[in-house]
Write a sequence for this structure.
């Protein structure tokens, strides 16, 4: 395989042929997906950086990469010697992507990107930058595709029907609700490119993105029609029959651009310009009126129905069995048999595969020992894999898709002797997690209001973590979903500031990361529920969904107040009551000790 330097040279040659000054390579497919399939990993191919988020800008003489704090350490390591400058997003003195483009684009210059891989909202910002420099955009060229000789093909794994016993609401009912939203917006058509929304609406799942069971496709909804633009080769006869029964017509995947190009002038079309790609919206004829708003289905799928909630609880009990068996095995055998980060991850995956209804991992397992735990989204490779010793800390962030629901859990565990500093930090993180899990609040609050509950135990000691405290969780879809989340400030690139509604599931995952030493994160999923309603309004609270103990070897009871100790004991009592009957005798004995009152 060619080196990063060779690929950059080939890309610059293509830029020179077309008179391009700056070429933007985002981490994106044609659908604004968070994770992308192998075919779409253009930024990774060009830069060598394997993180799931980042944008590269290639100029005639240089190259720059923007990524967020989850990936700073990983990017520093992977970009070494590449000649690519790392731009740490959000850090003091670091220009934003758009600030950099505004300064780097020469007067009258050409800014280019693949218009299928950039959202309309971002494309418009790029257009403004080019116009201010009296330059122009070039959005028709996939230059990485022009140099990528061994590019992986689009996947052809089959789609499958996600039964009503798991979905809880039929496609016809979902389309009826969407059409009601269209009518309120005054739109005759609604075009969607979000794979999560499409899979949710159609009650179909697939395998086009690893760990995200979706199908590459577009959807168009009118008052009387539902058209699904999809590759025929991924459909089974069962799915075709199902679609006919739902009143959904099929069209070839690539025909979406011709379809939007045929919309008559004056017609009103509902689009989410934050997800619909630049080429698609640019294909609309002049005179078409765009109603730009979030896809109505985004909020609908975030608010889980009672069937989804019941199934999700079942999935989390299965997952608790997997995790407790894993932790028992880990604690019992570390130092007695060979273990590495990769072999431990593989053992966890094998335990999950034994559970009925297991589908796949909901993301690649993060298993970081010692200083690797401080790399927030660390992924062990053959080169980085290290043996585990019976000492120090292991951070394991993992999740699984079952037919009943999706899980996302992080536990940090002591493998042997630990320092007092580790215990202090772990106790801070446990307090932070419990504070948020036990929140009581008035309806109308968002995660922006509640984030302080998790950060206060860290902020009071001058500490923080450089990632969100929590994200919404999809139902056998993307494990990360909006519009709900926990953050202390709104990011312009994220829509996680929604009011917390009953039925929303959000992760609760504070952490502390000591570069070069260790990382600590504790993550549960919590379900928003209604509490009492009185003269002050509707009160809300969270139901915990994750039933796996914290590590009492790392808890300092003296650093917790009476309420915090009571909360931990109550949590552990529920863990034991729910999970112990599902374990073998020796595992049950271990869990009894692991959940003892403090």
């Amino acid at each position: 395989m060619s080196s990063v330097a060779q690929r950059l040279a080939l890309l610059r040659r293509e830029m020179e042929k077309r008179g391009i000054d700056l070429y933007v390579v985002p981490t994106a497919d044609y659908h604004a997906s968070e994770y992308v399939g192998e075919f779409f990993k253009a930024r990774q191919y060009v830069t060598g950086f394997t993180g799931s988020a980042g944008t590269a800008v290639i100029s005639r003489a240089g190259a720059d990469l923007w990524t967020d704090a989850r990936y700073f350490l990983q990017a520093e390591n992977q970009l070494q010697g590449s000649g690519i400058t790392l731009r740490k997003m959000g850090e003091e003195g670091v220009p934003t992507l758009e600030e950099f483009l505004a300064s780097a684009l020469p007067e009258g210059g050409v800014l280019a990107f693949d218009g299928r891989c950039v959202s309309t909202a971002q494309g418009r910002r790029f257009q403004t930058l080019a116009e201010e420099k009296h330059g122009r955009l070039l959005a028709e060229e996939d230059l990485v595709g022009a140099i990528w000789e061994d590019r992986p093909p689009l996947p052809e794994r089959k789609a499958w029907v996600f039964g009503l016993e798991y979905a809880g609401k039929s496609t016809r009912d979902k389309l009826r609700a969407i059409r009601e939203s269209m009518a309120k917006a005054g739109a005759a058509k609604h075009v969607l490119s979000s794979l999560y929304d499409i899979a949710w609406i159609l009650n179909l799942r697939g395998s086009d993105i690893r760990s995200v069971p979706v199908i590459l496709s577009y959807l168009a909804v009118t008052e009387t029609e539902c058209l699904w633009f999809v590759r025929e080769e991924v459909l089974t006869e069962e799915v075709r029959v199902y679609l006919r029964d739902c009143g959904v017509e099929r069209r070839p995947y690539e025909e979406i651009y011709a379809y939007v190009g045929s919309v008559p002038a004056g017609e009103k079309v509902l689009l989410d310009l934050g997800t619909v790609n630049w080429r698609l919206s640019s294909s609309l004829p002049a005179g078409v009126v765009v109603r730009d708003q979030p896809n109505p289905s985004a909020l609908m799928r975030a608010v889980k129905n009672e069937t989804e909630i019941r199934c999700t609880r079942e999935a989390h009990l299965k997952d608790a069995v997997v995790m407790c068996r894993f932790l028992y095995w880990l604690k019992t055998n570390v130092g007695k048999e060979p273990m590495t980060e990769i072999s431990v991850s593989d053992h966890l995956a094998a335990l999950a595969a034994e559970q009925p209804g297991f589908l796949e991992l909901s993301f690649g397992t993060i298993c970081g020992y010692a200083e690797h735990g401080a790399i927030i989204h660390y992924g062990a490779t053959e080169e980085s894999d290290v043996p585990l010793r019976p000492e120090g800390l292991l951070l394991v962030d993992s999740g699984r898709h079952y037919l009943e629901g999706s899980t996302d859990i992080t536990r940090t565990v002591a493998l042997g002797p630990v320092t007092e500093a580790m215990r202090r930090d772990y106790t801070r993180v446990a307090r932070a997690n419990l504070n948020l899990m036990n929140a009581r609040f008035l309806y109308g609050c968002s995660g922006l209001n509640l984030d302080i509950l998790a950060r206060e135990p860290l902020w009071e000691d001058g500490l923080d973590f450089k990632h969100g405290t929590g994200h919404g969780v999809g139902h056998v879809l993307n494990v990360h979903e909006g519009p709900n989340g926990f953050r202390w400030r709104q990011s312009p690139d994220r829509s996680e500031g929604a009011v917390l509604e009953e039925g929303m599931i959000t992760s609760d995952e504070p952490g502390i990361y000591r570069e070069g030493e260790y990382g600590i994160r504790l993550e549960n999923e919590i379900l928003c529920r209604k509490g009492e309603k009185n003269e002050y309004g509707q009160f809300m609270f969270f139901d915990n969904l994750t039933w796996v103990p914290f590590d009492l070897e790392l808890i300092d009871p003296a650093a917790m107040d009476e309420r915090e100790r009571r909360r931990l004991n109550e949590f552990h009592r529920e863990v034991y009551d729910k999970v112990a009957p599902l374990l073998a005798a020796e595992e049950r004995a271990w869990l009894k000790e692991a959940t003892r009152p403090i």
